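Question (not urgent): is this output format expected?
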Amino acid sequence: MAAPHRRKFLGRLSLPERTFVADALRTETVGGVLLLVAAIIALIMANTPLNDVYQDVRDFSFGPEPLHLHLSVASWATDGLLTVFFFVAGIELKRELVAGELRDPRAAALPVIAALCGMVMPAAFYVLVNLGGDGDLSGWAVPTATDIAFALAVLAVIGTSLPSALRAFLLTLAVVDDLFAILIIAIFFTSELDFVALGLAVGALVLFWFLLRWGVRGWYVHVPLAVVIWALMHASGVHATVAGVAMGLMLRCTVRDGEERSPGERIEHRVRPVSAGLAVPLFALCAAGVSVSGKAVGDVFTTPEPLGVVIGLVLGKAVGVFGGSWLAARFTKAELNEDLAWADVLAVAMLAGIGFTVALLIGELAFPGDPALVDEVKAAVLVGSLIAAVVAGVLLKVRDTRYRKLSAEEERDEDEDGVPDIYEMDDPEYHLRMAAIHEAKAAEHRRLAELAAAGSTKDDSPA
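Got this back:
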């Protein structure tokens, strides 16, 4: 009796999935570099004589007071711009659920368990540190978030040719992470609810869903309605970014007859550059401006709240993602891709410790009445993310030669038909084409050799 087929963990992606992941991560990588630049600018402004100007701009308020939208620039960045980020995250999650890694419950078990463990363990590390140091437990959720754009910016900087399977695993981790992060924000950081505004927001969301199902198209319909939904959600007391995720999840991400791409993919393709290239960097510009003096950095390692954040990001994420992946593979009897090793999973687990965008957001929400502690926690997010990035970079560099070889194999296209050869190995026509190509090359080599030999004989003949 034949042995049952065992699923591959981090196995080769299908060609459409690989193409989608490559396109999505290319945009996120560019956005990550912009995010990194924005964070550096914010840090420079906050630690130089420009600090007064920086703080005045952040605190400048504008917007209609009767609609409860007279907000500071920093609040517009947090509540408004990040809604675009979470809208894209909602589309990504919907696509993963219907067409990506999460559509098969057995395949989804691995990244979901890894992501959950990668959120539980950092929170547990934070709680343990603060219980021992008599700190404030309110920040338990800060180190649970992973910033995919920043993680990919690190990959771009160190130039690692990470195989597509590992990149897809990191992307799926981040998508699941974003879902649970928004649930944490909605459940634990909603204090007072305005049920009238919330009811109107839900009603507007239902209208948004019906318009999508009826095939109503046009930005002039959906964008104003989206703004109304966002404003009502903000007025309700629920964090406004929840509206972005909800609308993203409502978009159809399956392709119908006559369509090249689903509506969700089309809209994501248009909105992702706005999110990665504008919304998130501007949020970082407003949120990352914290003091990095010697005392401030010292406080990160001596005060329980920021210390818990650093340990949660560096150790908690690594232990959680790696341990969750190993346990899930062990109990689902999934075999690790023979081209990779568990050291590669550990490197990705360290990358997951780069928490920035959502971690800074939760840091602001966790300690609303203590701006000094908020700044310390933000500094801890930066320090923890930097440590995780350096350690991950070292681990990835150790395996860089192997990654380059795997990447070259994934890209090789000897028959020049636009499809990587690795996806055609099981196609009999591919082997016929390759045999013809090799025969043509051999014939050309023989012809050149004969011409060279003839030329040599002619040169050696007596005058």
